[in-house]
Amino acid sequence: MARDQGIISWKELPLGCAILEPGNAKDLRTGDWRSKRPVTDYEKCIKCGMCYIYCPDMCYIPKDDGLFEWNEYYCKGCGICAHECPKDAITMVEEEK
Ligand code: SF4
Ligand code: SF4
């Protein structure tokens, strides 16, 4: 893509929205980067916890009933949870605009 198409190099991105220091990821609302979100079908869920284990952003919170609650604040929509779920209980759906 050419610069005259409005696309700039990552080296030209303004500072202020990057994870630059160890441990500062929690300060950033990384969920704003998401274009898709995971939706769980709790009827299929066997409470194995694989989504909780594999999510790189710790977006699943164990609940007292053994199910996992999703945290949209940090979820970047990578789809790893949906890929790793052994029961295909998680579906990635487009974010609404
Ligand atoms: S990986 Fe799938 S089946 Fe396992 S706890 Fe998560 S949603 Fe449920
Ligand atoms: S889509 Fe990625 S970041 Fe979001 S909950 Fe699943 S594994 Fe975590």
Produce the secondary structure layout:
Blueprint: E1 36-40, H1 50-54, E2 60-62, E3 68-70, H2 80-84, E4 90-94
Antiparallel strand pairs: 1-4, 2-3
Bound molecules: iron/sulfur cluster (2 copies).
Structural class label: alpha+beta
If classified by CATH, what would the architecture be? Answer: 2-Layer Sandwich
Identify the CATH class. Answer: Alpha Beta
* Beta-strand content: 15-25%
Short description:
The chain is an alpha+beta fold and 97 residues long.
Q: What does this protein structure show overall?
A:
The chain has 97 residues and is an alpha+beta fold. The chain has a single domain (24-94), classed as Alpha-Beta Plaits (2-Layer Sandwich), CATH 3.30.70. It contains two helices and four strands, in the order βαββαβ. It has helices at 50-54, 80-84, and strands spanning 36-40, 60-62, 68-70, 90-94. The strands form two sheets. A two-stranded antiparallel ribbon has the order 1-4. Strands 2-3 form a two-stranded antiparallel sheet. A hairpin with a 5-residue loop joins strand 2 (60-62) and strand 3 (68-70). The chain is elongated, with a radius of gyration of 16 Å. The two termini are 25 Å apart. The mean pLDDT is 85.
